[in-house]
Amino acid sequence: MNTSAPAGGLRAVIRRLLSKPAAAVALLLGIFIAIGTAAVAQSHDGAGWHHGGHAMTGSSEDVVAHVNGMLQYIYTEVGATEAQKTQIAAISQQAADDLAPLHEELNQGHQQVFDLLTQDRIDRAALETARAAHMSVAEQASRRVTEFVADVAEVLTPAQRKALADHLSRHAS
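Request: output the structure for the sequence above.
Response:
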């Protein structure tokens, strides 16, 4: 297995990605959606969620308020119109609704692996089955996040997508 870092390290890779406006917007929206949908998905059962590497807990109202704050920041950054805000809010809610059950499946898969690893005998076949199931759910979630990113990008104008990419590239260095 090759564990060497790309030339220039992770920062260089991110900088190269962010130098391309379309890639920067996709990266930002992907990160935003991953955080936002995980937060909304977790809010359905009241459990905590992760943001910036720190566990966050709180009521579903707290999580929704946080996600709404992130949306407001993006709206301000790109100068979104009221019509765009309405469209993006609906798109975000549908994505969160679609991703919540997948998030729960991933949580169940994690628990299954933990249960398998605490048995007296390690069942490698069962671990492989759990891994394959986990990857299948992750692929479904990845497809839905990509669809979400494209849906939001279509709502924004090319100038707004460029403004967002420019903002990201300034903060990535």
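The longest helix spans residues 82-117.
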